[in-house]
Amino acid sequence: xxxxxxxNSNSNTTPVLPSSQNSFYVGEVKPAATKSCFAGAYxxxxxxxxxxxxxxxxxxxxxxxxxxxxxxxxxxxxxxxxNPSVYMGxxxxxxxxxxxxxxxxxxxxxxxxxxxxxxFRPFLxxxxxxxxxxxxxxxxxxxxxxxxxxxGEEVLMSVKIIANGILRLSIEGAGKKFEKDFEAGGYTFAGxxxxxxxxxIDQVANEGKPVQATKTKVVGAExxxxxxxxxxxxxxxxxxxxxxxYTDMRCPNTNYFSIFSTLENRAKGGEKIEIYGAGY
Length: 280
Description:
Elements: E1 41-47, E2 53-61, E3 64-66, E4 72-73, E5 76-80, E6 82-92, E7 95-104, E8 119-126, E9 137-140, E10 154-163, E11 166-173, E12 176-183, E13 193-203, E14 217-232, E15 235-240, E16 247-251, E17 257-260, H1 263-267, E18 271-276
Antiparallel strand pairs: 1-13, 1-16, 2-10, 2-14, 3-14, 4-5, 6-7, 6-13, 7-8, 8-9, 10-11, 11-12, 14-15, 14-18, 17-18
């Protein structure tokens, strides 16, 4: 469902932009020039180097969604086969996590679960982890109005290690807040790993397969800023997720994305993002 760090044979290439020329920590590992795309979704991902990072965060305006009316889910006719998401996560100790917001069903004012998807709701996903014996897990926030976010709302989202084997998701904005501690055995203060932020059009039952043609688009998403947490002298410190700290991925190909950023934007991990399945 979500874009993990598994690889296929298609390498992702992106336009080379002038760097914001930000500084680095002594000994900081630089990110890879390119990474391979994992098939199954249209997604914009920024991913860090593998280093002593302890999490990621950022402030984002949630996108507006225009669904392709031809892409109805035959199993759930009130829903579509395309499903936007905005999320974070990473890979540490050979355990992948996808944690953030996905377009979901809700409970209406009468307590009934809607047939169609109506709001962004928090989700937390991890793969299995051999070292701790953890099995793969996926869960949503409770279906309550205080945990629904809507198109165009601005949220501050973060995922960080708060204890060995424990990640904390925090989402706050538009007068609402969700916070959840999530067991992920691969994530430790002493470990090295990578963290990411992702804007995606996921596709139902399509993980690992070529993307399905669609006219669905998501517009108006904007990262005002984003940052990494780094372990410095035993403390997690926020540091800008500037363009010298990430691999720029636009999958499965650059032509599905419209990205606008300035040097000032990129110095603080910011950009505007549109994704269009029919291409630009």
